[in-house]
Amino acid sequence: QTVVTQEPSFSVSPGGTVTLTCGLSSGSVSTGYYPSWYQQTPGQAPRALIHSTNTRSSGVPDRFSGAVLGNKAALTITGAQADDEGDYYCALYMGSGISAFGGGTRLTVL
Amino acid sequence: QITLKESGPTLVKPTQTLTLTCTFSGFSVTTRGLGVGWIRQPPGKALEWLAQIYWDDDKRYSPSLKSRLTITKDTSKNQVVLTMTNMDPVDTATYYCAHRGNTNWFDPWGQGTLVTVSS
């Protein structure tokens, strides 16, 4: 069974830029997987950031952007802020109506 | 404005069947392309997609849990119900329902409901 992979953790300095990735244990991610990204802060439900590879959800600031880079989906945060700390999850459409989430990336801003 | 809220028992015993209800407003689950999904998150662990139901009543399940899950919708009540049979302590998790957009994304999410499986 193919697994969705993410970096377990990442650190970025305030004001810096970070790119989180979302891959597959077997194969490459393309736009046909409709990658989406979610942010979760402690005690809260996930919040959608990006869908369909690069479309920002309503109210999401433009310092969050999505793309497919090489064989992975990517979420880039430009000008990181302290309240960007949290867990970031990607989700992929695996075909036949099936979705799968990655293991999540814990982002630290320090 | 779209809102969703999960309801159900907070504690179930091993081998019992869990029934969770997602009550939503702000959209119709019969609108072409839309649906409702269920996702869970064990304490301190990652999100896991469980099931989703589409506008046309098509239903899809996680391959690893398919034999234990059933998802249904009641359009008159604006509700989607998930049942999971043969509950085990490893099924202890916060269970979320979410509005599924027409390109397979989940937004917004309900607040989640914590279900503990213990005797």
Residue stretches of chain A low in confidence (pLDDT < 50, at least 5 long) are: none
Distance between the termini of chain A: 36 Å
For the largest interface, the chains and their residue counts are:
A-B, 24 and 25 residues
Please compute the radius of gyration of chain A using only Cα atoms.
Answer: 13 Å
Beta-strand proportion of chain A: over 45%
Distance between the termini of chain B: 40 Å
How would you sum up the global shape of chain B? globular
Outline of chain A, from the CA principal axes?
globular
Order of helices and strands of chain A: EEEEEEEEEEE
The quaternary organization reads as heterodimer
Strand content of chain B: over 45%
Q: By helix and strand content of chain A, what is the structural category?
A: mainly beta
Question: Into which percent range does the helicity of residues of chain B fall?
Answer: under 10%
Mean pLDDT of chain B: 96
Number of helices of chain A: 0
The helix count of chain B comes to 0
SSE map:
The complex is a heterodimer of chains A (110) and B (119).
Chain A: E1 4-6, E2 9-12, E3 17-24, E4 36-40, E5 47-51, E6 55-56, E7 64-69, E8 72-78, E9 86-95, E10 98-101, E11 105-109
Parallel strand pairs in A: 2-11
Antiparallel strand pairs in A: 1-3, 3-8, 4-5, 4-9, 5-6, 7-8, 9-10, 9-11
Chain B: E1 3-7, E2 11-12, E3 18-25, E4 35-41, E5 48-54, E6 59-61, E7 69-74, E8 79-84, E9 93-100, E10 106-109, E11 113-117
Parallel strand pairs in B: 2-11
Antiparallel strand pairs in B: 1-3, 3-8, 4-5, 4-9, 5-6, 7-8, 9-10, 9-11
